[in-house]
Design a protein that fits this description.
It is built from 13 helices and 14 strands. It has about 400 residues and is α+β, with helices and mostly antiparallel strands. It folds into 2 domains: about 180 residues, no CATH class; about 170 residues, no CATH class. A hairpin with a 2-residue loop joins strand 9 and strand 10. The chain is elongated and about 100 Å long. The two termini are about 25 Å apart.
Length: about 400
């Protein structure tokens, strides 16, 4: 038999048991779809986080409380010593006016306007925030230095907060209740997407002094330094480490933007591979299902094999027929799984960031084909080794 005849016989055999063939394909379909979908989610999250870090601005140095260096258990903060405004002012004086220093305070808050309320987060900074972080105003303005100095109760709204509390309205000049205190809305931002700390659109932006009074704290969650030039970022990093070490010892961490990107890419890349591995287990289960069904098929068609061998079919002909059947199941199942995985990724795009990658599609498809061959070889070999006399006598 040539390849075309073997393919025709294999298709006819699979068509004779449509339900069983479909159920066997189901394991491969689910496995391929899961690999593509989970890798798409991992890749989408990785790209969004990377884009967010890059979109924060350029030439940034992140100063965080706690030692975030690699330890035996992975990155972990070993101290909760917090910064203060005095620490930020100290860095500003010593680094010079050419390097912008922005202390950050972040905390969850409850918002209320009339009978509408929601949970959000405040992200407060000084007057240099607009120069350090990329932002696009749709209306109003940013807070000024005088308002930071006075601790004025003014606030800028993220797009989600604006849409939830002031639907189809211009919020500029309106008042908003934040944790029981009244603030005046002076501006609102265009949609910006997620950040390292959550949904950037579901945040409020206000002077850091007003936020500290609102929250009843003098702590600063982090300090961001923007170097004057790109080639000075590492120098600024070293200066910050030298300036803070006498007060904090090793209980603080300083990362450049590139280092932050590298850490996040490494963590999310590992997560993506783990997701693909977990999904790959279902492909192995599907392969075992293929082998099981092919063994049943060999048993059911023992007399057919005996007749074919008796009229001249060679060992290769019998083996190739069953390998082709297993390969058809895995390839067709893989194709259907690819379509479902792609459609699922597109459907989830509205809820989580997804990105279907070519390597994930190719890996899932060729792995499913390989599964078919691998788990089809043993049943095919077993069928090809049957002796014609024994096979003809089989009931």
């Amino acid at each position: 038999m040539n390849l075309g005849e073997s393919l025709t016989v294999a298709i006819r055999a699979l068509s004779a048991n449509k339900v069983r063939t479909t159920l066997t394909m189901l394991g491969v379909i689910i496995g391929v779809a899961a690999v593509i979908l989970l890798v798409a989610i991992g890749s989408g999250v990785q790209d969004e986080v990377t884009g967010t870090i890059e979109g924060l601005g350029s030439n940034l140095v992140f100063v965080l409380p706690g030692n975030m260096e690699e330890g035996s258990g992975g990155p972990a903060a070993v101290s909760i010593t917090m910064f203060s405004m005095e620490d930020a002012d100290f860095l500003r004086r010593r680094l010079g006016p050419e390097n912008l220093v922005v202390p950050i305070v972040q905390a969850p808050v409850t918002l209320r306007v009339g009978n509408r309320s929601m949970r959000s987060a405040v992200a407060a900074a000084n007057e240099h925030a607009g120069e350090v972080f990329a932002s696009d105003f749709e209306g109003g303005r940013d807070y000024r230095r005088s308002e930071v100095t006075a601790g004025s109760r003014v606030v800028v709204l993220g797009s989600s907060v604006r849409d939830e509390l002031f639907p189809f309205q211009d919020p500029v000049g309106r008042e908003i209740d934040i944790n029981g205190q009244r603030f005046t809305v002076i501006g609102h931002l265009a949609a910006q997407g997620g950040t390292l700390t959550g949904d950037q659109d579901n945040q409020l932006y206000m002077p850091i002094t007003a936020a500290q009074r609102l929250l009843g704290t003098e702590d600063v969650n982090s300090i961001i330094v923007k170097a004057a030039e790109a080639d000075q970022v590492e120098l600024v990093q070293a200066q910050v480490q030298r300036l803070l070490r006498p007060s904090f010892g090793e209980e603080f961490s300083v990362f450049t933007q590139e280092q932050t990107l590298g850490i996040m890419a490494s963590l999310l890349g590992t997560l993506t591979v783990m997701l693909a591995g977990i999904a790959g287990i279902s492909l192995l289960v599907g392969g075992i299902g293929i082998m099981n069904i092919m063994l049943v098929s060999v048993t059911e068609r023992t007399r057919e094999i005996g007749i074919r061998k008796a009229v001249g079919a060679k060992t290769y002909d019998i083996m190739s027929q069953f390998v082709i059947e297993a390969l058809l199941i895995s390839v067709i199942g893989g194709a259907v799984g690819m379509a479902l995985g792609w459609a699922g990724a597109a459907a989830l795009q509205a809820f989580v960031p997804t990105q279907v990658t070519a390597w994930a599609v190719a890996l899932a498809f060729f792995f499913s084909a390989g599964i078919g061959v691998f788990f089809g070889v043993y049943p095919a070999y077993r069928a090809s080794r049957l002796k014609p006399i024994v096979a003809l006598r089989y009931e």
